[in-house]
Design goal:
This protein is of the alpha/beta class. It is built from twelve helices and 16 strands. The structure holds zinc ion.
């Protein structure tokens, strides 16, 4: 048994912090939690003194691409290095992500099931993974990557990471089944283009038809998978909400149609805005991407504010990968500094609400009796300065399922 003592606890529910808290961990689970004067330390338990620190639930990133390294074709087609080297680099990304306090990640495409198995076997350190494997889009859509010369990508070198292109309800149902066979625990699709899509296929361009989207959602739900849908604006965004996807990724123009945000609230659809990726898009890459990213910024922030106002569940996701793997808590910084969320709202979006988005709120996301002991202690107060979560030397303790992966106390 382990007793974590003395920290200020932010439990992930949005409730008031508990000063001088005690958390008792037995094996992989939390067995008691509360103010130190109300929680007994079991005799013989190892005491971890966290005085002066803040203790949080393990952080969750609901939109990452752990296996991606860049937007260029050499990267996208995985031609830039031997497969073995790429895999080892990805393993390093998994470790780095965990060591920054991220104990769970929902991967939005590009990571095969073997990484999850390796983490579960204890072969490599990494976050708990919810995998989409590949992103489903139609011909000409987000997953149909071509070179400017019109060339198609080489045949998949990794049979566990197939192309996500599918057209027509039957082929889409088959693609969902195939991805489930390959270990997908969530289904990722795109219903519009994106900021980084090719010229001529942008945020307002619809991808699937209604029949196709409905087939995708129905098949996924029948197989017990939630649907995370890349959707920025226009009729493709509306379609995603109408057919009942479980989360909207990006959602940059949700504010444009007055009934979209209320529809999300009513249907309980999660909103994963991914602010951090647009910082990159505004400042880097090709001109047409910069222009789209700059144009959507004000609407994106307005959409988030309006969503929060009517109780839409906003969730933290970075969309890291295409532009490298910086610290995932950069998303929380953007939520506070750009979107005007309170630090507590940002923390809940990456803990309690994020676990709810994963469908794992009975196990993860808050510090409560019976839940898995995924915990992070930071030397600082994220409620007064959210950026303390970006400093590696201040992440003093990272525990996943009761096991310590960082302990620099
Ligand atoms: Zn993404």
């Amino acid at each position: 048994m382990k007793v974590l003592k003395g920290a200020t606890l932010i439990d992930g529910t949005g409730g008031d912090p508990i000063p001088n808290a005690t958390v008792v961990v037995d094996g992989e689970r939390i067995v008691d939690v509360g103010a130190s004067d109300a929680v007994k330390s079991p005799p013989g338990a190892a005491v971890i003194d966290l005085s002066g620190m803040t203790l949080l639930p393990g952080l969750i990133d609901c939109h990452d691409h752990l296996g991606h390294t860049g937007y260029g074709l050499m990267d996208r087609w995985e031609l830039d290095a031997p497969a073995s080297l790429r895999h080892l680099r990805t393993a390093q990304v998994l470790q780095d992500t965990l060591e920054m306090g991220y104990t769970s990640v929902r991967d939005a495409g590009g990571l095969d099931h073997g990484f999850q198995l390796a983490v579960e076997e204890g072969l490599i350190p990494g976050p708990r993974l919810t995998l989409s494997v590949s992103l489903i889009s139609p011909t000409g859509g987000l997953s149909d990557v071509r070179s400017p010369s019109g060339h198609c990508c080489p045949p998949p070198m990794n049979l566990n990471l197939p192309s996500g292109v599918a057209d027509g309800p039957d082929a889409i149902r088959a693609k969902v089944r195939e991805l489930c066979r390959l270990g997908a625990t969530v289904i990722k699709c795109a219903s519009t283009g994106g900021a980084s899509s090719r010229p001529g296929h942008g945020p307002y361009d619809r991808e699937f038809t209604r029949e196709e989207m409905q087939a995708l959602v129905d098949e996924s739900h029948d197989l017990g998978r939630r649907v995370m849908c890349h959707a920025l604006g226009g009729s493709g965004l509306r379609l995603a909400l109408e057919v009942g996807v479980d989360s909207v990724e990006h959602g940059t123009y949700l504010n444009e149609d007055p009934d979209l945000i209320p529809m999300m609230a009513e249907k309980g659809i999660f909103y994963v805005p991914t602010l951090l990726v647009y910082v990159y898009h505004r400042e880097n890459v090709q001109d047409h991407v910069k222009e789209r990213a700059r144009k959507l910024h004000a609407d994106h922030l307005d959409s988030i504010r309006r969503a929060l106002d009517v109780g839409v569940k906003v969730v933290a996701g970075t969309d890291a990968g295409g532009w490298g793997h910086p610290d995932n808590a950069g998303e929380l910084k953007c939520m506070v500094e750009e979107a005007g969320m309170t630090p507590m709202q940002a923390l809940v979006s990456a803990t309690g609400t994020a676990a709810d988005c994963l469908g794992q709120s009975d196990e993860l996301g808050t510090v409560a009796k019976g839940k898995l002991a995924d915990l992070v202690a930071v030397d600082g107060d994220p409620l007064s300065d959210i950026t303390c979560l970006l400093e590696k030397k201040r992440i003093k303790l990272v525990m996943k399922g009761g096991q310590e992966f960082v302990n620099s106390l």
